[in-house]
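FAQ
Q: What does a multi-component entry look like?
A: The components come first, one per line:
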Amino acid sequence: MPQPQLAAIAVEKAYRKDKHKIPVLHGIDVEVNKGEFLSIVGQSGSGKSTLMHLFGLLDTPDVGEIYLEGQQIDDLPEHARDQIRNHVFGFIFQFYHLLPELNLLENVLSPLMIRYSTWEYWKKRKQFKQDALEIIEKVGLSHRIKHRPSELSGGEMQRAAIARALIAKPQILLADEPTGNLDSSTGKEIMDLLTNLNEQEQLTIIMVTHDNLIAAQAHRTVRLREGQIEVLGKSKSASVPA
Amino acid sequence: MYKSLLCLRYLRTRYIALASIISMTLGVATMIVVNSVMDGFSTDMRDRLRGILADVIVETNSLDGEPNTQDLKDRIQRAVGNDIEGMTATVEIYAMLSVQYGSQWQSKPVTLIGIDPATKATVGPLSKYLVNTSEASIPDWELSPAAMAYRKEWTTRAQWMVDRWNHNPPPMEEEVTPVEKPDSAEPLAPPKFDSKSDFESPFDSKPQVAEETDSLSNPFDKELNESVFDKAEKRDPGSPLKGRVYIGYGLVSFPYEDPDTGETKMFQIVKPGDDVKISTVTAGHPPEPTHFNATVVDLFKSEMSEHDSSLVFCNLEYLQEMRGMIDPESDEKSITSIQIKLKNPEDAAMVVSKLEEALPAGQRFRVRTWEDKQGPLLAAVEVESAILNVLLFLIIAVAGFGILAIFFMITLEKTRDIGILKALGASSNGIMSIFLSYGLALGLVGSGVGVVVGLLFVRYINEIEKFITFITGRKVFDQRIYYFPEIATHVEPMMVFWVAFGAMVIAVLASILPARKAARFHPVESLRYE
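Then the predicted structure of the entire assembly, as C-alpha cells:
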C-alpha cells in the first residue's frame, strides 16, 4: 500500500471557552493519497473545518499526529510550519479572504511575495508576473487584473482566491466551503475548475463542505458527525480513479 | 516584499492614521521653531558680545591698572600665544555721562572703555556697530566731514551768542529764570563744554564740584567768563576736543510714539560732532573725582539694548591721561584689562585656566570669558530652552499614544488579513514588521512634514510676526523690550535631525505593542472573524 500523501492519525482537538473545554474532534484518522479529491462533509460544528485547519498547519492537534509524506509535521517549529504552508498547501476559503488593499494581480502574487525576500522577488518579478497572468487566464479573470476585490463579484473573488492558491504550485489544495457563499451556477463553475485541476494536474484536493451534492463530485467522502467519522464515502479504495 | 507593499497601501488608504500623526507634526514643527529662536537669540547675542567684549578678558582687580603692560602681554603671549588671534589693551572704568539737551543736563551711569581702535579691530568688529563708519574700515578718532560741518555750525552759533551776550547783556532782572536762554526753542542746543580742562594738565586739575556746573545756571556763563576774557583766542572752537568718544545709541536716544502715525520712532539728542561731559575717578590713593569733555565721533549701535545703553568708548591715551595713569617719570601707561580674541572660541575655558596659571599670583588679575560676563542671561536662555524641549517632547510623546490607540484599532480591523497572510505562510515576525514599518512610515511622514513646516516657519518668522501683529493689532515682538530689532533664528542641522529622529523613534515605539499583538493573532481565530 503506497504511503498516503497526507495523513491525520488519531487527532483530537478541543477548544477552551473560559473554563469549559469544548471537544471538537475525537480521535480522527484520515488519509489522502496523491492526486485524490477528498471531501469532508458534516454539519456545522461537526469539526470539519477544524480538521482542515489541522491539515493545513493553521492549528495544532491536542493529541495525534499529522504526517506529510511520512514526515510528522504538526510538531515542527513555527518557522518550518510557515514554510510548509507557503510551499505545500494552497488555501481556498468560503469568504475568499482576499486582501482588500491589493488588486487582483497583487493578491494572486502575494504567496510569492511572502516566499521570497524583496531582492529575490524583484529579480524574478517578470517571471512571476508571467506565471500569475497565465493562472489568472486559466481561471478566466484576465480582464480584471487591476481591480480591487471590492470591485469583483463573489464568483470572481473565489476564482481569484483559487489563482492565488495555485501560484505557489502547491501539492495539496485545501478548500473550506469553496462554494458556500455562491449561488448554485457560480458554485458549479468553481467545482468544475477544481475538478479540472484535480484531473489535469493531479492536484490533491481536500474540500470541506456541508453540501452533499457538492461533496459527491469528489472521489471520496469522509463524513464527520460530532467530531467522529461517521460513514466512509462511496469509494473506499485509496487508489486514484483514472 | 509583501511587507513594504502592504505598509505603503495602508499608508495611502488609512487617513485616520494620518490624522493621528498631526499632533506629532505640530510637535516637531514647534520644537524646531522654539529651538531655532532660542538658539538664534543666544547665537546672536554671543556674536555681538564677542564683537564688543572679545572672547577672554584679563582684568586687573584694582582700577589703578597695571603699569607693566608689555610684560603682561608677553606673559599672555607665552602662555597661550598659539590660541590667540588678537589682543588689545583697554582701560575699563565706571563713569557718568552727562549730556546737555536744551537747557537740561541728563546724566547716566556708563561703562567707559578706553580703546585703541587699531588693535581693537583685531579683537572684534567694532566698526560693524558704528553708525556712521563703514564696516570695512578701521575706525579712528577723526570726525567725518558731516560731523565736522555740524560741529562748526553749532560752535559758531554758540560763539555768536556768547559775543552777543557780552556786547549786549540782558538786564539782570531777578524774575528772569536762568533757563530761559535766548535760543531755547532750538531743539539741539549744543552741550556746554568746559574749555578750561582741555588746556590744563590733568595732574593739577582741581576736582571740579557740582556748583561749578550748576545745571540751572545759564549754560553760557562760563563761556562768557572764560572764553572771552581768558582763553578763547587760543583755540578754534570749531575743532574737536582732545577727548573723543563713541557713545552707545541707547544712551542718547529715546523711543517715542508718533502721535500722528502711532509708529515708534527714535528721538536722538546727540549727534556726532556734539560734546559731552564724562565724570569718573582718577587712579591713585584715594581716587579723586575727575571729569572731562569729549567730542562724540560716532554712535555705537550693536542692536543689543544692554550694550547700547551702557557703553561709551573713549580714546585710550586721553583716558589714561585724564585718569592719571601715565607715570610722569617712566612714561609707562597703565591699563586695566586686556581683551583677547581666540582662534577657536570654544577653547575659552582652556585658555582661561592656562592664563590663570601663567599670570602672577597675588590676586592682581582676573581672567574671565565673555560668557562669564553675560552668564546668567545665557544660562537662563539655556534652562528655558531645556524645559521647553522637555515639554514639547512630551507633546510628541502624547502623539505617540495617539498612534498606539489608532494602531490597536487598525490591527483589530486587519485581523482577518493577518489570518490570511499567516495562512499564506507569512511568519509572525513578518506580520510584526508590517506594523512596525507602518509605524515608522507614519513617523517619517509626520516628522518630515513637521520639519518642513517648522523650517518654513523659522524662515518666515518675521513676516509671520508682522502678520499676527497686523491681525491682532498687538505687537508680538516689541523691540523696545527685547534685545534685538527682529526675531533672530539659527537652525542647527543636528537639532533638526534629533527632533525628527526622536519623533520617529516614538512612532516606532508606539507601534511595538499593537504590532506584537497582531503577530500573536492565532490564524484560525483571525480567519473565523468575519
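Q: Is there any commentary attached?
A: Sometimes. For this entry: DSSP finds 17 helices and eleven strands in chain B.
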